[in-house]
Design brief:
- A five-stranded mixed beta barrel has the order 7-8-9-11-10.
- It is mainly beta.
- It has a single domain (about 10-130, about 155-315), classed as Nucleic acid-binding proteins (OB fold (Dihydrolipoamide Acetyltransferase, E2P)), CATH 2.40.50.140.
- It has helices spanning about 115-120, 200-205, 265-275, 305-315; strands spanning about 10-15, 15-30, 35-40, 50, 70-85, 90-105, 150-165, 175-180, 190-195, 215-230, 235-245, 250.
- The chain is globular.
- The model is unreliable at about 140-145 and about 275-310 (pLDDT under 50).
- The chain contains four helices and twelve strands.
- This is Single-stranded DNA-binding protein.
Amino acid sequence: MLGDKPLASYGHENGMLNVAWISGFARNFTRDGDSVSGFIQQTNDVTRMVPVGQSPRHKRTFAAIQNEEAVKITGRVHGRLVTWNNGTKEVTEHSAFLDPLEVSSPSIIEMPSSLTWHTPIKNRKADRIQQDDFQPFGGETFGEGRMRDAANNVVLAGIVDGIRSLRGEGQNVIVGVEIILRQTENPEESIPVRMMNSKLARIIREELRMGRPIMVQGKLRVRDLKAVDADGIETPTGQQVGYVWCRSILNARRGKDILTIPSWVKDIMARYGQAPEGGETAPEEDAPKAADAPEHAGTAAESSIEDEIASQLASL
């Protein structure tokens, strides 16, 4: 089992840290040929189940996963593009999902507790919660049950290939940032990472640069996609996209979190260096509602980060 091996033996993909441990109840698992897909349910809301799938070039064969059984999946977080209609136009979003390396039986402490199962998701409106007949825990007890770290834990390192500010719904206050984290040459496989911390968001937004190597530790979650009508009223479309939620952004350690800096980082830096002062904005949807901010363009006074990356690229 992978849990018996050191992280260094399986924790990297394409030379970058990428591993997730997710435990919960298997839901709606299906097999299409040699491809497996489904969800891991951790709370009493079927719209917040963790998506599981397999990338075409990373397919592995697993024994049948029984629906509604307790399961632990050790795997990679991969990204893909999802196109949807926001009420006025087609929009393309990055979406994250869990790609299994190993499927096993979880320990008791790796499973969500009954209190966690019945605890409403923070800031989630009650009329948007959806439930079905699957109730592994009796009763309707509500409390402050926090998801155990062992039940949903993700560690990632990669290269910043995009960043935008997130604002609270109906507010003009920055409550977080979304980072497009890239680990492969194909930008469509990038992973969306959201840091929801209003105290740090503006500082992180100002400090991060395109092409910077970073590391995050967090949880794999999903959010609703919403359509907006002519009056500005948002309505969930019934679709969700996955993302990695975290509280802080760390510097990636070369040789540990990122083993080598890939050559395609030069393309990001070239694009970043050519960006006009102030950059461009593009719409986004989120709950909390997201408001775009331009990609940050560096100045002479802010050259230390660019020098750091340039020194790493020089060794390619």
